[in-house]
Amino acid sequence: MSDDIRPSLGLRPVINVSGTMTSLGASIVVPEAIEAMTKILPQFVEINDLQRKASAVIARLTGGEAGFVTASCSAGITLAVAGAITGNNLLAIEKLPDVAPEKNEVLVQMGHVVSYGAPVDQSIRLGGGKVVLVGQATSTHRFHMEQAITDKTAAAVYVVSHHVVDYGLLNLKEFVEIAHAKGVPVIVDAASEYDLRIFLEQGADIVLYSGHKFLGGPTSGIVAGAKELVRHAFLQNMGVGRGMKVGKESIFGVMAALEAWETRDHEAVRERETGNLQLWKRTLEGRPGVTALIEPDPTNNPLDRMRVIISPQEAHITAWDMAAALRNGSPPIIVRDHEVEHHYFYLDPCNLHPGQETVVASRLAEEFDKARASNNIIATPIEDLSRHRFDGLLRWPD
Ligand SMILES: *Cc1c(COP(=O)(O)O)cnc(C)c1O
Q1: What is each CA distance from 289 to 43, 178, 312, 327, 343, in whole angstroms?
Q2: 32-65 pLDDT, tens per residue?
Q3: What residues does ligand 1 touch, defined as CB less than 6 Å away?
Q4: Which domain of life is it from (predicted)?
């Protein structure tokens, strides 16, 4: 693209086949949101009125009674938890996170305490919550949850993600049933989910989404659900929410992204993504030691990805060295590699500009050809990767 600003900034023109990653700038913001942000930036607005307008749009799309926009889904977890703890007690809101009211316990299944780039439990503690782990990593039974609820329980948090343990845990309906039987509100982290209605339909009291993931909005979080709980979360803007604030451009940008989501041709998007996956499959088919499988999204989003399984003996390279070669070459291709120790990575087709799919295909061919031509097997010990994982970050900004 000729209007690519990155080279003039000295930034690498990365192509993102890893998914919606904060570390890469999340997603391609839809034109409707860009236009909305441009229009509102030069104007003054009464922010709480703008948030009222956002509430109406969020309510319409999610089926919740109310909603607002905050800095991120992570912020949304903190604000929703804080709201469940403080209610509308303005003094308690100012005192957080140190002095939380007595009723501050927040239940979460152990198998849901994952990292989305930061720990789920930290977002709860930041809102004054005392995390109470329920069950074990791979098993939560009803009795675990029932007996974890006390008169100090303020809320229960449920995480929807490919990161969570996907067997042996309580599903959302059971989780809600047990919590509601004792009057405990349920907060659902659905940061990266397409379906804007299903979690509230299944009984969640508050649901949280990222504005910058599938919605293609500016960096932001969406809080939606029961009016009183949403209001209590909103009031945290006078407290811990201040450091998570969004400006007029993000609020209005999210409103536009939500409206664009309503009218987006989701089937056409899916068709284009399927075309990309098929192109990459054709590119990889027949190569020694390479298996390309098209697989559905683990949390049932309407999206497929390609799993590229690499046998180092035949491909002459490990999956992690291939991911590095793709990342370090030109242009850099960033694959989805968080399970790479199992000798595979994924290609995610949903964050590409038209034409980039063919660049990805030719880079794949180039790197697999190069590896195959190598006389020895390119195999960095996986332990070295783990040991040096944060070296670059710890030297930042150098
Ligand atoms: C991405 C993600 C988050 C964090 O969302 P942000 O909006 O980037 O803060 C939280 N939970 C899950 C499950 C996620 O996938």
Answers
A1: 58, 49, 7, 20, 11
A2: 999 999 999 999 999 999 999 999 999 999 999 9
A3: 22, 72-74, 116, 159, 161, 189, 191-192, 210, 221
A4: Bacteria
